[in-house]
Design brief:
Layout lengths: L9 E6 L5 E5 L2 H7 L2 H12 L13 E4 L14 E6 L6 E6 L3 H7 L2 E7 L6 E6 L2 E6 L8 H11 L5 E4 L2 H4 L7 E3 L3 E3 L4 H7 L2 E7 L9 H17 L1 H10 L4 H7 L21 H7 L1 E5 L9 E6 L2 E4 L3 H7 L8 H14 L3 H16 L15 H10 L3 H5 L3 H7 L8 E2 L2 E2 L9 H9 L12 H6 L13 H18 L11 H12 L5 H21 L29 H12 L9 H6 L6
Parallel strand pairs: 1-6, 7-12
Antiparallel strand pairs: 1-2, 3-4, 3-6, 4-5, 7-8, 9-10, 9-12, 10-11, 13-14, 14-15, 16-17
Helix pairs in contact: 1-2, 2-19, 2-21, 7-20, 11-13, 12-14, 17-19, 19-21, 19-22, 20-21
Length: 595
């Protein structure tokens, strides 16, 4: 294959209904305004999906996308994005995964694969550079993600990469993930359920081409500088490489923000037992690096004599403190089971924690109790197979709590379960949760960096003044980063100008820091318009009632979230009206036509 630039790489359009496959090019306008990855996916969905469609119907699209820096020398540029309408939240949704799949897709000459319709029988897509075909996957249906991956590599090419669903996706469970590299997940929002609704078991890709950039010398200099910054920053050079993401367990607990017993408390008395330090001491086997990543935050561990992936910080929290459990080896095995079945560990663990509180409060009868691991491994399988109590939990915590007339016990925003940081301990992070376009997400505006970890600079976590400005900055930058596509952890070390310099070198576009943030702002507003079109309003920019009640103990005691005062300012700074809708002037400034 000849070297591929981003602008001459193809978009694959796959109709699963009739089996047709065609190639298209990204338009120059879309490239300049949305870059790729998340931005391109959002643009395509906004223009092509009719309002009100069922996310699990053939009318929904499922888009796998990479960005203009993917598979280049830019550190961490091996990730990919899955964009669709979420069956869990009903919102626009993008879910991300690391590993090596994204780089192979880009090296095969593709920047996106769009799946439309639904196949009448199970299939998988085999991409072998220029050769692309749908193949029968009937014999794979019902198999877990590890067996699926092994069988597909034997059937295609041992050097290929696989992104697949497990039983949860096949059963269209709304907490289903897409798995790649065995333990990397595009986990959130039920993207695996959308894949299952289309009878698409997997995408297998083998890419051997070279990726060209616009300015090789400029990129080389920018990458050298970026790598120096990663080595200089203590989070990316020491904390994450040594302890992995689980380094955050003790840190968050010390700040009184480690959600415990379904966010009833902010401190877990035995946090040390499930910490990154304890993981390294007891279970860790080796580090895992995604494609082109010098950080290496991933972990391979051992649990009950078996080598398993992870567990990551969020998973440790979800099945640990959230459920009042301190058995780290058991958590590692739960994570492994979730990966095999193809479910999102954050939403599954959080929903089980919600069920435990429903039982605790006498709202629900079930064999679930905080601190008790009994039956949970079997329950997770029931969730994936949509049977019994598992079928109820597989709808997510919002639906579960509403079913038992206790909606206040579901810790979610817009239907997506909130991750492992109690918002009462960090005002900016709380605003980020409430305004996230995809629901309860910590990565849309990761103010844990400055508010808790002091990176890149420390800011007062209790103050509300200035937080709307900062949230908007991080949200716009995150949208741009997700469209390039690079890892969120680089944000600890790099500035906006660092991202822009590498983006300009790869694309040849005149991108500086301001231009990159403008791209992110455009993406953010288009997502907002999509959600408004789906019926979401300013009333959905809220947090559970629980966060208006102060924590009684720990380093975040006596704190509540002061959301309203920040939200009013946030809307004004966004150029939205009081109802949270972008004004005509804002859309004109961003060159967004309102449909």
């Amino acid at each position: 294959m000849s070297k591929q630039t981003y602008t001459n790489a193809a978009i694959l359009r796959v109709s699963l209904t009739d089996g047709s496959i065609r190639r298209e090019q990204i338009s120059s306008d879309d490239f300049a305004q949305y870059l790729g990855g998340r931005g391109l996916g959002v643009k395509l969905l906004y223009e092509n999906l009719l309002p009100g469609i069922d996310p699990l119907s053939p009318d929904n699209w499922l888009i796998f996308a990479v960005g203009p820096v993917t598979a280049t020398s830019v550190p961490t540029a091996g990730r990919f994005v899955v964009v669709t309408k979420s069956p869990l939240t009903g919102t626009i949704f993008d879910s991300h995964a690391g590993g090596y799949f994204g780089a192979q897709l880009r090296k095969a000459g593709y920047i996106a694969v769009i799946f439309e319709g639904a196949s009448p029988s199970p299939v998988y897509l085999w991409i072998n550079d220029d050769e692309v075909e749908l193949r029968d996957a009937s014999k794979l249906w019902g198999k877990d993600t590890a067996v699926t991956t092994e069988d597909l590599l034997k059937e295609t090419d041992s050097k290929a990469q696989v992104a697949c669903i497990g039983p949860a996706g096949e059963n269209q469970v709304k907490l289903a993930a897409i798995m790649t590299d065995l333990h990397r997940a595009a986990g959130r929002g039920g993207v695996g359920a959308v894949m299952g609704s289309k009878k698409l078991k997997a995408i297998v890709v083998r890419g051997t081409g070279d990726v060209a950039v616009a300015d090789t010398d400029r990129l080389s200099d920018a990458v050298k500088h970026a790598r120096r910054l990663i080595k200089k920053n203590p989070v990316t050079s020491k904390a994450l490489p040594v302890y992995g993401t689980a380094v955050l367990v003790n840190i968050t607990n010390e700040f009184g923000m480690l959600p415990t017993f379904n966010f009833q408390e902010g401190n877990f008395n035995d946090a040390v037992a499930v910490s990154g330090e304890k993981l390294l001491e007891r279970l860790s086997v080796k580090r895992y690096n995604c494609y082109g990543c010098p950080i290496g935050c991933g972990r391979v561990s051992t649990a009950y004599g078996q080598e398993v992936g992870g567990p990551e910080y969020e998973t440790i929290w979800a099945f640990g403190p959230q459920c009042g459990i301190n058995d780290l080896e058991w958590i590692a095995m739960v994570n492994h089971r979730c990966n095999l079945l193809g479910v999102d560990t954050i939403s599954v663990g959080s929903t089980i924690g919600c069920a435990m509180e429903l039982v605790q409060k006498g709202k629900m009868k079930a064999p679930l109790k905080f601190g008790d691991t009994t039956g949970i491994l079997d329950l997770i399988e029931d969730i994936a197979l949509a049977r019994g109590l598992g079928a109820e939990l597989g709808e997510g915590s919002r639906t579960l709590a509403a079913r038992y007339n206790a909606p206040e016990l579901a810790m979610h925003v817009k239907g997506l379960e909130i991750p492992a940081y109690d918002p009462r301990g960090a005002q900016g992070h709380a605003l980020g949760y409430a305004t996230s376009n995809r629901g309860g997400c910590h990565l849309r505006s990761y103010l844990i960096g400055p508010e808790i970890m002091g990176s890149p600079v420390r800011i007062d976590r209790d103050k509300t003044e200035g937080k709307p400005d900062l949230v908007i900055l991080f949200q716009n930058l995150s949208a741009a980063m997700d469209s390039l596509v690079v890892c969120r952890f680089t944000n600890f070390a790099w500035t906006v100008d660092d991202y822009a310099d590498m983006a300009a070198a790869c694309t040849g576009l005149p991108i500086d820091g301001s231009a990159l943030l403008a791209i992110g702002e455009r993406i953010w507003n288009l997502e907002r318009l999509f959600n408004i079109r789906e019926g979401l309003t300013a009333e959905d920019d809220k947090l559970p009632e629980r966060f208006s009640t102060a924590l009684s103990e720990g380093a975040s005691r006596n704190r509540v979230v002061h959301l309203e005062e920040m939200l009013t300012k946030y809307y004004a700074l966004r150029g939205w009206d009081k109802a949270g809708q972008p004004t005509k002037n804002t859309l004109k400034k961003l060159d967004i036509p309102k449909s």
